[in-house]
């Protein structure tokens, strides 16, 4: 009889991984350029820019658990999660283009409102895809190592997408020359199409099966309550999500700050491309290595090692306050190698958590877990951008409109550097507190659990 890992064909692994082109694009471009677009093209103040980004993310946090519950209901009714994924994949490119298409002549407040509404729609479409997408690994295979393989290749493609959008996005933005709004629009159209295509490919991996008796249709509040119940009853889920959320906060503040570091610390817009190449190149190469290490020592131990390496590398970047230069690409490369493990390993651990919960409390809740997970991930990334805007406002960062040139105060430049180095290092170190208490091991997944103690 074929093992579960053999039954997970290369085609499924490849098509599932392609979905991360959409995930990587949506996570990278808004986090990288949206705040900068608001402050340095539309003239929106740093705090208002942070509010725009945070408002859409807060909405995501509210609807993700409900989308997860609806995805579980859709699976019961139709036998697949594919429908909601397709709706999100088709709607996202349109809303993404509108986000970077604020009409000329709008004042900063009205322009900020335009971007907030459009970005809220973009984030909603993304959640319709992402929540069931996150739920699929628990249903595609029940093998501990096969899940690591599936999520490892997902992160390889995710890393490639981050490099593609992180380096290519700013290049497309410069296609408008001195017309910055046109450059952002070109970037949004191209990126939106690529994101949508990647998502549509991934929808084909959603299993189709027997339609079962559906659960009663529930309200937003009831779906949210189901997500809170998953957090309450599953201790492994609480610990894993807590660590991942803190790390999302760390990577979110770094991502939002990268453009500012290139312009105001390294004094070169081209440095943004080099930063992404230095970060993501090693991530692409090292993601399979983290998978191999996880098979030898366990996912949870490998995850802790990756987190420690990332924290040390980030802390080393604090030296750019006094000596900015090309040397920063070396610790960024180390952080990139560690980042691959920080992405692939927790994602491979999540379906283990879902499977463990299914044995102890019954199956059929993968969508709910995916919804809460996506809400937590969204919270971390959103608060990372918000945290950066707080640092910018506190240190006196000066906004500008279009191609206007300003001179930033020394305190603002120092704040940008700290947001890219010491701050994320501390956040990742704090994330180790819950991660070191994560209880599930290979034996808990590959063999039936004799009691429910671990889940409690």
From TrEMBL:
InterPro entries, per the entry: MFS_2 (IPR039672), MFS_trans_sf (IPR036259)
One of the Pfam families matching this protein, by short name: MFS_2
Transmembrane intervals: 12-38, 44-63, 84-103, 109-129, 150-172, 184-208, 239-265, 271-290, 302-322, 328-350, 371-393, 413-436
Gene Ontology cellular component annotations, sorted alphabetically: plasma membrane
Record carries keyword Membrane: yes
Keyword terms of this UniProt record: Membrane, Transmembrane, Transmembrane helix
Gene Ontology BP term (one): carbohydrate transport
Entry GO MF terms: symporter activity
Protein name per the record: MFS transporter
Originating species: Agromyces kandeliae
